[in-house]
């Protein structure tokens, strides 16, 4: 088991910050593929546990939360209406394909991890950053 820190960006007008959140992986990953697989499996397990418990996150909308959602371009209520558990294998496959397709990038400290089968050496409390790249579309008049 290894504890790493994953940088998570908190959006908002008053709190546009990045926080390093502790993240416990069941085993030390040896490659970028192992890292992504482990992170996805931990996230899916946590999500599925919430679904099994019937937990829904319903919070009152505040002006600040609406502004935050406006800033990222997505209005969400935090409710799982379907009540279905996530498929772990499909989630891992999707995450690995997203990495191959360049939809997000992974950094260990200041170093970008670019290949799925690239060997990595993680130590306790290492900081990792996943950056989702947003594809913009538009037209020129």
Q: Please give the share of residues in helix.
A: 25-40%
Strand elements, count: 5
Average pLDDT taken over every residue: 81
Structural class by helix and strand composition: alpha+beta
Could you give the order of the helices and strands? EEHHHEEE
Oligomer: single chain
Q: In angstroms, what separates the terminal alpha carbons? A: 55 Å
**What Rg, in angstroms, do the CA atoms define?**
17 Å
Q: Which sheet architecture does the biggest sheet show?
A: 5 strands, mixed
Supply the number of helical segments: 3
| Percent of residues in beta strands | 15-25%
Order of strands in the sheet with most strands: 2-1-5-3-4
Low-confidence stretches: none
Write a short abstract of this structure.
With 141 residues, this protein is α+β, with helices and mostly antiparallel strands. 32% of the residues lie in helices and 23% in strands. α1 (32-53) packs antiparallel against α3.
Secondary-structure map:
Elements lengths: L1 E9 L6 E9 L6 H22 L9 H10 L15 H13 L3 E5 L2 E3 L13 E6 L9
Parallel strand pairs: 1-5
Antiparallel strand pairs: 1-2, 3-4, 3-5
Helix pairs in contact: 1-3
Written overview of the protein:
The chain has 141 residues and is an alpha+beta fold. Helices cover 32% and strands 23% of the residues. The chain has three helices and five strands, in the order E-E-H-H-H-E-E-E. The chain has a five-stranded mixed β-sheet. A hairpin with a 2-residue loop joins strand 3 and strand 4 (111-113). The longest helix is centred in the first third of the chain and has 22 residues, at 32-53. The protein is globular, with a radius of gyration of 17 Å. The termini are far apart. The model has no long low-confidence stretch (mean pLDDT 81).
């Amino acid at each position: 088991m290894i504890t790493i820190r994953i940088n998570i960006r908190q959006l908002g007008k008053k709190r546009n910050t990045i926080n390093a959140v502790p993240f416990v992986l069941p085993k030390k990953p040896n490659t970028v593929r192992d890292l992504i697989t482990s992170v996805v499996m931990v996230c899916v397990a946590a999500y599925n546990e919430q679904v099994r418990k019937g937990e829904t996150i319903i919070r009152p909308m505040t002006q600040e939360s609406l502004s935050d959602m406006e800033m990222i371009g997505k209005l969400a209520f935090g409710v799982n209406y379907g009540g279905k558990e996530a498929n772990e294998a499909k989630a891992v496959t999707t995450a690995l394909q997203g990495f191959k397709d360049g939809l997000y990038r992974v950094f260990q400290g200041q170093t970008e991890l670019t290949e799925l089968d690239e060997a990595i050496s993680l130590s306790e409390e290492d900081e990792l950053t996943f950056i989702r790249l947003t594809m913009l579309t538009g037209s020129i008049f």
